[in-house]
């Protein structure tokens, strides 16, 4: 088996509230070199770690992570909707392999996903139905959250199970790094919001449009500096990337949920997808980070990174 990683920040504001053309050009260049790595690697299977933003997972039942044997995307923020091309056989094999390794994995036979999953598939492969994929939801938004060590253990178990498939497997991480978008919080929420976060009542098209406009406006305010949102933290983001580059993944075990939120904002926990993906690659052998791009992009409410890594 050979393995590789692409880490790719997502933002629903891409194309809706873009930064200056020079920033866009630098991002495009980084994404294009990630695409080139993917083309050369030619994956037979993609394991995609991504969060959800209260479109598929709700407090009625909120697992810390969940692997899908089938999935469909809701098409939020203009992302592609419809079924993902899930490799159900591979997903079942990976689920069994992960459970056999003592990780209490939740499995979904019909997962609902949002732009967190759809965007990297569209960016890297041109659509959500182009490559055999195993979607793995990693909760990066809904507190309380468990220790980061469990995410590293999940990634390690997935990597070990994937190694037994004897395929070229690309692990993709979607999310983060530091960012503090206006995603609702259950604690202290007014009853109608709390009910939606718990039950997941599907929004009407008007409600969805209003919620999305609120995020777009937040991006404009963030870029203009007129907001109370926690600022993007390039030092913290680069510390994370340094540890991933060095392969010092055990060091993440001492990171705490409270400190991560203080350093990187309420959605900084999306970096859990990166830790999982790199732990999966590390479980297959030594690796090298072959490209690394980072830029703070307030218009997208994102400490935005693109990295690639390949087994040595
Ligand atoms: O409101 C949402 O659904 C998500 C917002 C958001 C904004 C910026 C970066 C991200 O990773 C997000 O999920
Ligand atoms: Fe997100």
Instruction: Please give the largest β-sheet.
Output: 8 strands, mixed
**Share of β-strand residues:** 15-25%
What Rg do the Cα atoms give?
18 Å
* Structural class estimated from helices and strands: alpha/beta
Question: What's the shape?
Answer: globular
Oligomer: single chain
| Tally of contiguous helical segments | 9
Strand order across the largest sheet: 6-3-8-2-9-1-11-10
The CATH superfamily label reads LigB-like
How far is the first residue's CA from the last residue's CA? 12 Å
Total beta-strand segments = 11
Active site: 115 (proton donor), 179 (proton acceptor)
EC number: 1.13.11.16
Catalytic activity: (2E)-3-(2,3-dihydroxyphenyl)prop-2-enoate + O2 = (2Z,4E,7E)-2-hydroxy-6-oxonona-2,4,7-trienedioate + H(+); 3-(2,3-dihydroxyphenyl)propanoate + O2 = (2Z,4E)-2-hydroxy-6-oxonona-2,4-dienedioate + H(+)
Cofactor: Fe(2+)
Model description:
With 312 residues, the chain is α/β, with parallel strands linked by helices. The chain has a single domain (2-311), classed as 3-Layer(aba) Sandwich (Protocatechuate 4,5-dioxygenase, Chain B), CATH 3.40.830.10. The protein contains nine helices and eleven strands. It has helices at 21-41, 88-100, 115-125, 148-163, 191-199, 205-224, 234-246, 257-264, 271-282, and strands at residues 2-8, 45-50, 65-68, 71-74, 81-83, 106-108, 111-113, 133-138, 168-174, 287-297, 302-311. The strands form two sheets. It has an eight-stranded mixed sheet with strand order 6-3-8-2-9-1-11-10, with helices on both faces. Helix 2 (88-100) crosses helix 4 (148-163) and helix 4 crosses helix 9. The protein starts with a strand and ends with a strand. Bound molecules: the ligand O=C(O)/C=C/c1cccc(O)c1O and fe (ii) ion (FE2). Residues 10, 51, 53, 116, 175, 267, 270 line the site of fe (ii) ion (FE2). Its EC number is 1.13.11.16. Homotetramer.
